[in-house]
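Researcher: For the annotation table, I need structure tokens for S1-like domain-containing RNA-binding protein. Please keep the output clean. Sequence:
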Amino acid sequence: MANIGRYNTLTVLEKSDHGLYLDGGPHDKILMPTRYVTPDMSIGSEVEVFVYNDSEDRLVATTEKPYAQAGEFAYLEVISVHPTAGAFLDWGLSKDLLLPYREQGNTHFTEGDGAIVAVYVDEYTNRVVASTRLHNHLPAEKPPYEVGDAVHVLIYGDSPLGFKSIIDKRYRGLLYHQETSDQLEPGDQFTGYIKKVHNDGKIDLRRDPSGYGRVDGVSQIILEKLEAAGGAMPFNDKSTPEAIRATFDTSKKAFKQGLGRLYKQRRILITENGIELVNE
């Protein structure tokens, strides 16, 4: 059975002048246009495709990869705005994704804006569409994470406690303000780490790996950067978070912890002008 708005492995039933017809189960035959057909595809073979509605509202299959499938969240660019339908988003396919006005809340989108949306299949039209009402599309199951797992993080908002986040395009989490010194904005994306999964499914995040492993890792990065720079760099605990992130790819808090560990080990000197390797 073919699932609309998602990747499917379907069997080739027959060839035509327009492409290949695939077994869509209850959806009958689904056309994969000729431009996606490769020489190794033949009758009886299985192909991995994404199924969605074309501009004439027919189900079609494509080997193109959307930035998100139904059941996932993504940060997408507004390509155009229709006066009555809504905003059209670039989601990686030849046909743009519609964000209907009814799903935009109080936000007024214009061309070039970024939109953080849930991708889903409308139950009335069977079309794949987008929504900014993220809370309506969160999964019910408990997230399958362990403390310390690395995850993809998409920032979608701010709160008094921290930054609201989407994890791995599917789950909601919170990155507490004390976990990062960066000023994050909606649309920012990076690798984060699971700090805690609560019994109700809520997730706390870290910007960097937790515990001593984080300090050891940052310390090693600092040493490698120092060696590559000839033994001295103009960085210390007075450096800006932005400069530290750009050079060492870590937060200022983790950087300071890494410096402290190296200093206690007598592997670096901290001066007014920066840091230096200790000659052994």
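Researcher: And a one-line annotation?
Model: Residues 211-215 have pLDDT under 50 and may be disordered.
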